[in-house]
Amino acid sequence: MNPLIYERQVFVYHGCDAAVRDRVIQRGEVLQMSRNDYDWLGPGIYFWEHGPERAMEWAREQKKRGKIEKPAVLGAVLNLGQCFDLLDAANTEVLSRAHSEFCESMKVVGSEIPKNEPLHSKDRDNLLRRLDCAVIDWILNRLEKRSGVMYHSVRGVFQEGELVYPESGIRRRSHIQIAVRHPACIVGYFLPSFWQDAQGSNETTF
Predict the structure, then answer these.
(1) Within a domain: residue 200?
(2) Within a domain: residue 166?
(3) Which of 69, 139, 140, 179 has a C-alpha 20 to 30 A away from that of 37?
C-alpha cells in the first residue's frame, strides 16, 4: 500500500461542550482521545467528515444525557496521514481476515469475544461497537509492530438511523467518521463562521 495515497486534507467537525471548544481555540488545548471500549473505530479523537450538523446533533444528544452543558461544534483541518480507510476495499479485506485471527487469539487466552450491542431497546444500529473497536485496535497495533508503519487515523462510513422513506437503502443519520489516533494529524482548528452569533456561540437551530 502506498502511504502517500492518504496524504490529503479534509475539513472535519467535532461535537463538544462550548467550554471545550473555547479552550481549544483560545488556549491551544488538545482534544482528549476517546478510549471507550465501544468506540466505533477504536481509540482516537473523533470527527465527522464534512458533517457539522451531525456533530451538533451529537452534542445536543450529550446535553440531554447530562454530559455537557452547552452544545457546540469545533471545526478542524485534518491530514489523514497513514489512514486505515474502511472505504478502501483493500482495508476492509484486511479487517475481515483480522476478525478470525482476533477471535482465535481471544480463545487461546480464554477471554470472551466482545460483541456489538444495542444501547437501548429502540437501538437498531448496535451503537455499542465493542467488537469493531477491539478488532480495529488489535489489527492496527499488530500491523504497526510487524511493519513499523504507524497508522495516524481510521476512517469509516456508517449507515445509521431510520430509512429516509420506505424501502430506501439510505438512512437519515448516515455519515463518515474519522478517529485520529495521533493528534499531529490535526493541522489546525477553526470556528464554523456560518454558525457564529454575537456572543461567539455556534449553537443553532436546523
Answers:
(1) no
(2) yes
(3) 69
